[in-house]
Amino acid sequence: MNTHDVMNFLPLLAILLPAMGGALAVPLERRGARWRNTVLGAISIATCLLTVALLPGALHAVPLELPLLQLTPQVWLHLRVDALGALFATTLSLLFLLALVYAAAYLPRHGRLARYYGFLMLCQGLMLGVAYAGNLLTLLVFYELFSLLTYPLVIHDETPEAMRAGLKYIVYILVGGSAVLLGVIVSFYLAGDQPFAPGGMLDAGMDPALLRLAFWCFIGGFGVKAALMPLHGWVPDVHPAAPASFSALLSGVMVAAGCFGILRVVFEVFGVELTRSLGVAPWLAAIASVSVLLAAVLAVGEDDLKRRLAWSTISQMAYVLLAVSLLAPAVTVAALVHISHHAFLKGALFFCAGAFARHAGIRRVSELDGIGRRMPVTTAVFVIAALGLVGVPPLSGFVSKWLLGIGILEAGAPWALVVLLGGALLAAMYLLPAVWRACFGAPLEVPVTARSDARGGMRFALLAAAAVTVLLGLAAALPGLPLSLARRAVGAFFGAG
Amino acid sequence: MDVIDLRILLAPAISFGCAVLIFLLGARARWRRVLALGAAVTKFIVILSLLPGSLAGKVYVFEVLEFLPGVGISFRADALGMFFALVSSTLWVLTTVYAIGYMKGRHARVRFFGFFALCVSTTVGIAFAANLLTLFLFYEMLTICTYPLVVHDETPEALRAGRKYLAYTLLGGAALLLGMILVQSLAGTLSFSHAGVLPAEAGSGALLATFVTLIGGFGVKAAIMPLHGWLPAAMVAPTPVSALLHAVAVVKAGVFGILRVVHNIFGVDLLAQLGYASWLAWVAAFTIVAASLIALAQDNLKRRLAYSTISQLSYIVLGAALLTPFAALAAVVHIANQAFAKITMFFVAGAIERSTGKTQVHQLAGIGRTMPWTMAAFTIAALSFIGVPLFAGFVTKWYLSLGALQAGAWWFVLLMILSALLNAAYWLPIVYLAWFRTPAAESAPIHEAEALLLAPILVAAAYVLLLGISMQVSWLPFSLAQAAVRFVAGL
């Protein structure tokens, strides 16, 4: 077997490795925490390296293809590594690694840890399947499975509040999944089983009613996951109810999986030309704009820290969809970059929220006064991530906002610039007061000397997320980082090779 | 190509001989067990040995006797018949193992196992029937053979259910007889043929009467609403019987009959021209939704299963009624998909009842901690019914939706989605109760049902997974289904 063949199996290995880790969770838990941390940590690092190893190929060569299994006589499950998928895969496996390290210190020592780690690893494998899916049905299979298997992570704490949030989650996800399925069935009926390819597989000669039906099914289905208003209902309830180590993933990459699905559909199922000629893009743009602004306004009015961050996720992810709906190259590059930059920023913020809750019992923004003196490391990371999300240079959030702004002008839609700036202003309004309180607010009763900052894995994950944020800001143009991959992917979408 | 082969007579004869021997043996329990299992396995092997030839396009025939010119008992194993026979004989092996475990220490086991074997014998007879008369004879025999099983417990409730069962199915049989006479007079033959036997010029009144009597007759066992009343009542029977009724034999005989009527008596072209099938499709659609809504309200696990069966069977009827190749394929494969998933659930319901005495859904909190393997199997079956990808049910949903689009009836695609969500609404709460709710007694140790009950559960659940991902394997039923559909609809 030559090296080329071995490379072909890497994406499959990247999916199976974490899934096997998930299967090991129960026996590992019996042997104790140290065993579990070592083995799962090693598996997670290996997965990260695998996804990184697939990057160069995605940047330069033709996409890797790996047929997996003939599901029915007409349909194959197959994997494919292109620039878009590789970018998403690397982002998510790195964030999963950080969340795993964080969870080891964050989760209480008792209570169903085997279930948590088992499903966490399994979900990572399935999400990598989403990233590497080579056709619609493969995407659907992995998407549906990871969405369902996330449930035990959502309700991990098993409080009544968590159970209610879990019910809401599962109802939204099932309905959304059904809509996606409907879209897949209609596209299959129109075009048969075809791999994702830039330019799309549907064409304007097909029944326009069915094409529109499929388009809105996809937007509605993936929009549930991507928290596009008015399909966002589960997001603000699920985030506060889930453990922080998981909320970070949920906001960072799982919501993004919905955006990822929409990107695939718009650029590789419908194609730019068809989407434009169907006349659906302006509607999507309008919905996304409302989503950006309205969610941000609601975030300003929210006192619960995790819930405020959840609203912020809704607002930030709507940027991506707004950018997609403009159907122009530069702004699409910005959208892809924003997905991965946002993942680490939001991950860091949720890690901080978890640390505040665990070490100081603080869950509300109004209680953050003076926490900076008691938890200096956590607060420093919180400040960096918050400033990043607002878009202060030279942090990663600035890069993606800058690119979005330039792209919007290039696409000739200056009105979208108003939305972008409005969103950024509102982001400042919902994050900076928290920062100000944490740094300069006067603590109420607790003496300043009671220092109890995040330690161990939590501290490591916090610092690592902050470091990634700074790095992505300072060195955005390095090859292999999101910008280069996004350029490569978008170049293909718009037919520049 | 037709090949005369004794094996297609052998298959029903094995079960029949087994039944006779069981009655002769009387109370010798060990011999009875050996015999029952031996017969099940032998028959499975005989049918499996026919499979390669059938896949290669051979059709096995055997004429038993001809009592009037053109009317006689004869067998013919085409791909559709082979499919049904293979599914039912596979399930018979599982059900026999389960029944041996389940019936331990119960009364009247000779009668039970004897009639059990007879039922399966007649089921194979139905599968291999070459004409409507043979089908009818075995269909009526099946009704009679299942009666002692339904009333096995001999409680007043069981006897009442038995009477209801007989009333419904015998009336259905009478309708069939009428339809059969009509077919004979209109077409001059009762033999099944690919393109249908009824002539288009027969006059729409006569054809409509034929359609209504035949579909109505088979529709009783296929539990199409409003002909479903017997099925929930028959839930009083012991669990292996419920499995037999719901998965292996009775209801499947009904839908198999409908497939035969649609494809081999009327033929797709004639039905499309007449337009009756769209009415049937709407009745099936109504049944799918209405039965699911009723299932939502049931707290008794077996009753919920019963209404789910009614809903799922109409998937098959809908698939047949859409008259497109993909829909026909969905109809045929769903015979297997529904059978394996439903039998898993019935086995699980029985195992829970045997080891904990619980029969109601609300009592199941935390049962996943005490019976993890059993409930894992249940979860697989539930996900299959919802139609999660990679599980068997997804294949049906996929092809049925495509078939509906082929027929230009996109609203049935919405129906499939709605039905999937309804399935989620009544299966997921059970999964949730089992795994995510703490049991009343906190420290309940793992206590699974005995191996004879657990093993068939796990095998059936594994089969559900297998049916979902490996349709290309030739010894699985899917390739036969494809052959069957290629045969009737030119896929």
Plain-language structure description:
The complex is a heterodimer of chains A (497) and B (491). Chain A is mainly alpha-helical and 497 residues long. Chain A is built from 20 helices and two strands. A two-stranded antiparallel sheet of chain A has the order 1-2. Chain A starts with a helix and ends with a helix. The relative contact order of chain A is 0.10. The mean pLDDT of chain A is 85. By secondary structure, chain B is mainly alpha-helical. Chain B has one domain. Chain B is built from 20 helices and three strands. In chain B, helix 16 packs parallel to helix 19. The two termini of chain B are 19 Å apart. The model of chain B has no long low-confidence stretch (mean pLDDT 84). Chains A and B meet through strand 1, helix 6 and helix 8 of A and helix 17 and helix 18 of B.
